[in-house]
Amino acid sequence: MTVDMEIICVGNELLIGKILNTNAHWLGKQATNLGVNVKRITVVQDIVDETADVIREALRRKPQFIIITGGLGPTFDDKTLESIATALGRKLDVNQKALAMVKTKYEEYARKRQLPTTIELTPPRVKMATLPEETEPVNNPVGGAPGVRVDLEGTTLFALPGVPKEMEAIFAETIAPLLKQAVGDRVFCEKNMFLDDIMESNLAPLIVKVMSDNKGVYIKSHPRGTENKSHIEIHLTTAAKAEENPMEMLEKAARELAILVKENGGKTS
Amino acid sequence: MTVDMEIICVGNELLIGKILNTNAHWLGKQATNLGVNVKRITVVQDIVDETADVIREALRRKPQFIIITGGLGPTFDDKTLESIATALGRKLDVNQKALAMVKTKYEEYARKRQLPTTIELTPPRVKMATLPEETEPVNNPVGGAPGVRVDLEGTTLFALPGVPKEMEAIFAETIAPLLKQAVGDRVFCEKNMFLDDIMESNLAPLIVKVMSDNKGVYIKSHPRGTENKSHIEIHLTTAAKAEENPMEMLEKAARELAILVKENGGKTS
Question: Domain spans of chain B?
Answer without folding.
Answer: 4-183, 186-268
